[in-house]
Amino acid sequence: MEMETPKCAEGEVLIKVEACGICRTDMKCFSYGQRDLKLPRILGHEIAGTVADTGPGVTGISIGERVQIAPGLPCGKCDFCKRGWDHLCSSVQIMGFHYHGGFAEYVLVPAHGVKNGVLNPIPEGLSCTEAALTEPLACCVNMQESLDTGPGDVMLIFGAGPLGILNAKLARLRGVKQIILIEPNEDRRRKAKDREFDYCLNAYHTEEIRLFTQEKEINVIIPCCPGMEPFGQAINLLGKRGRLGFFSGLMGDHQGQADINLIHYKELSVCGAYGCSSGHNRTALSYLAEGKVKVKDMITRRIGLDEVMSGLEMVRKMSETSIVIEY
Ligand SMILES: [Zn+2]
Ligand SMILES: [Zn+2]
């Protein structure tokens, strides 16, 4: 629909959106709703663009500058914010959830977001389309900092969607030597073979995995897909003192059982990660700008704003890796 271009009040910044990613969260918001989603809302939280206007009192940001938006707008004052966990801020508000997001030509960044540093200048050499993938990468940074992944780990990832691939790319950067993938979708599994995975399986086969790791235990598992089943499998597959990343929120009814007692017997750790802090966001943007994590090969579809509905359908059908709207 046609909407008026928002006007900047005191402290606000207007962004002309240049690129916005569409992800599974948008599809979930659209189809099922989401805990933090307040309707009516323009979705889109993976936003990069150009500063089109600034309200009175805004300093340090100039019109024409390219910026990426960290979507969480923290209060900056509570204990969580002070500890750098601003995504857990008790009054955090999110672009595309509480405020209009990037599935529009212009997006208004509220004053408390601007003040708390959600606008990150995009370094030269990095396109807005690539910068739009900062947020999903930042969610992986959050996950893997909690899991403390590193050179000693044997990692298993469920799902070769964009987040599975980004987690694998990040794990490589953090020094993980062996990364195994379980992906039942043949097309996704075939494409993943040329990417960051050392061994790709279509399903959970304990014996095959043991052969591949030569009896080495898997000590980190990140399910990057919705559904309860991978959890039960992860608890079974993890070695002693293994770490499980609860990264993807469950969708629909949570069928399936997990042998929770194994967490006790094997002394497993379960880490949750939801979204990313402004610090994770800055780290992710620097990885992209410095070429430490390359995402160009993941952007398999670029669409126009008028194709958002078909973009959401592509996400549902899992026919692309990453889809970015370009304006
Ligand atoms: Zn997303
Ligand atoms: Zn706060």
UniProtKB/TrEMBL annotation:
Gene Ontology MF terms in the entry: oxidoreductase activity; zinc ion binding
Organism (species): Formimonas warabiya
Pfam families: ADH_N (PF08240), ADH_zinc_N (PF00107)
Family label: Belongs to the zinc-containing alcohol dehydrogenase family.
Domain of life: Bacteria
Residue ranges occupied by any Alcohol dehydrogenase-like N-terminal domain in the UniProt entry: 10-114
Name listed for the protein in its UniProt record: Alcohol dehydrogenase
PANTHER family xrefs: L-THREONINE 3-DEHYDROGENASE
